[in-house]
Each structure stands twice: as C-alpha cells, then as structure tokens.
Amino acid sequence: MWQNGTGGLLNHEDFWDTITDNVDIYQSDLRELDLGFVRLESGEEIPTDVLLCGTGWLPGLDFFDTDLLLKFDLPHEFADEPAEYSERWATLEKEVDPKVIQRFLMLANPPAHYMKPCTLMLYRLYNGIASVCDNSIVFIGHVLVGNYFSVTEAQAIWATAYLDKQLVLPSIAEREKEIALFTSWCRRRYLNNGENGNWMPFDFIVYSDRLLHEVGLSSNRKGWFQNLFSPCMMRDMAGLRDEYLAKYGKDAAAPPESTVHTCSVCTWKKLIERQGPCVYSLPSSARRAAKIDCL
Predict the structure, then answer these.
(1) What gap in Å lies between CA 44 and CA 31, rounded to an integer?
(2) What is the dihedral of CA 272, 273, 276, 281, to 10 degrees?
(3) Does 64 or 10 have the greater pLDDT score?
(4) With CB atoms counted within 10 Å of each terminal CB, which end of the chain scores lower, N or C?
(5) How many CB atoms are located within 10 Å of the residue 48 CB?
(6) Residue 190 · residue 4 · CB < 8 Å
(7) How far apart are CA 157 and CA 217, in angstroms?
C-alpha cells in the first residue's frame, strides 16, 4: 500500500557472488584512451576491449530561470514562492485530502517511516504533464514510474492532443483541484517520495489508461481476460499512433472553442491572488473581436 524508497528486483541469486569473483574495481579518473588500453590518472593501464560509459544522469530543470519555474509550477526553491501562492495550494490540498482518505482508508495511518527534508517545492502539473498557466508547453517524462514504455507513449499522445487543442479541458480551477488531489494522494501513498508530487511507480498502468481515455483511445487492447491476467508489454501499445491519426488527423476538426482560455495579459500577481482569474469563456471569434491575445 505504501512505498518510501526506490524499488528493485534481484533476478539472479548469484548476482553479487558473480560480481565479487569476476569484477575488478578501480577508483580513479580517466586520463586518456589508447588502442586496447584505458589509462587512469593513478598511472594504471587497464587492457580494454570495450568501454561502456555508465555515467548516470541528474534530472534537472536548470535551463529555466526562477520566474519560469514559478510560472510553470515546476520544482523551485521554497523561498522563491510567494507566501500567498503557497497558502492557496495548501488550502486546496487540505480541502481534497479527506477525499483521499475516504477512498483509500488504509492511507490514513501510514507506518513509521523516514522523512528526508525536501529541498524543492513539488511538481504541480495537470496529469503530470501540463502547466495550468501556459498551454503552449508540456513536460514529458517528469513522473517517476517503474517502467516507462507505456507511460511515455501515452504521455506523447496526450501531449500531442493537448497542443493540437483536441482536448476539452476542465476549467483552471478544476484542474488545480485535480493537481491538489493527486499531490495529496501522492504524499499519503508514497510518503517521503510523494513529497515530489510526481511519484507513481505502482500506478503507471492506471495513469496510462487515464491519459488514453482522455484522448478517446482505448487502453484495453487485448480483451478483458488478457487485460486482467497477462503482463503489460510494449507491443500492447502497437497501433496507437495510427489510431490517433485516424481520429485527429490533419483534416480532423478541433473541438468547439468554448472552454476556458487564459489571457496572456495575466500578471503573476493575478495568478497568485486568483480573485476573478483572468480567464474567458468566449468563442474564438469573440476573443478576436475583443483583441484578447490568448495563450
């Protein structure tokens, strides 16, 4: 029911014994590469047939400045967020948290667990992809799941429909409630990890189902029995691209533009105050007549 650390499987019982008996470890920086050798800063030369660079990576959003991190509700320093904005989100989460407990009773009383101090504000993206303040940008691959094959495919399709204006979205207020509901659930289910607002390693199938459902595509692609009892494979996603193109090809009409639109003249102050948000439920023709430049 809960997770508070990174999960993993050890598929071979002799894995560590194999490593111990057959792997030599050198702790030194590389100095240079030569034909058949790697030379280290320590002076050692290691005979080499193949060099594999397992350098890892540090996920980050450093190419955005603080203003954009705040605007898009991406992780940022706590001190950078205006107090009014933090308080408004805290109020939203407090309002929706009882719904999480009502639906998932066990989450009300988590076991004792370690809590690592958070250094950044959490993600606040609609469906883990889209900012509520700017509908011209999406963020793919920023949810933490156990297997990305279905998630990235579903995210890419949802993001394409979103950017092509093929989705009928809830109002900004409703999307914010959905975000608050997810972050509240994420904290209760994934404890310390959930403080990031993007953790769902046990729930990626349901997440992918939701994204495809919102686009109008089926995620149940193998028949009810196979969907329930067979493992999810990459091949299960075959054909989704063609189905999307058939449904939303270049000749497909966009849905009526009578939903909420965010005006580009909104200031950050107005977004924080949310007193009569600067949004318009007008058809595109009326917005053009009024010379409203919408994002």
Answers:
(1) 10
(2) 0
(3) 64
(4) N
(5) 13
(6) yes
(7) 10
Q: What mean pLDDT, rounded, does the chain reach?
A: 82
- At 126-162, the pLDDT tens digits run 999 999 999 999 999 899 887 888 899 999 999 999 9
Strand partners, 189: none
Q: How confident is the model at residue 103 (pLDDT cuts 50, 70, 90)?
A: very high
3-state secondary structure of 267: coil
As a whole number of angstroms, the distance between CA 154 and CA 213 comes to 10
CA dihedral of residues 60, 187, 160, 288 (deg, nearest 10): -100
* Two tokens, residue 265: 């003249």
Amino acid occupying residue 43: G
Residues 6+ apart with CB under 8 A from 154: 207, 208, 211, 212, 219, 237
- List of long-range contacts for 48-55, beta carbons under 8 Å, 24+ apart: none
Beta partners for residue 138, in sequence order: 130
CA dihedral 235, 241, 243, 248 (to 10 degrees): 160
Question: What's the pLDDT at 251?
Answer: 59
DSSP bridge partners of 199 = 144
- pLDDT tens sequence across 155-211: 999 999 999 999 999 999 999 999 999 999 999 999 998 899 999 988 988 999 999
| Segments of 24-156 assigned E as strands | 30-34, 37-40, 45-47
Give me 140's structure tokens: 């793919």
Distance CA(236)–CA(37), nearest Å, equals 44
Give whole-number Cα distances, 68 to 154, 188, 252, 274, in Å: 26, 28, 33, 19
Interval 106-113 mean pLDDT? 90
- SS3 (DSSP) at 190: helix
Domain boundaries, the chain: 66-254, 256-295
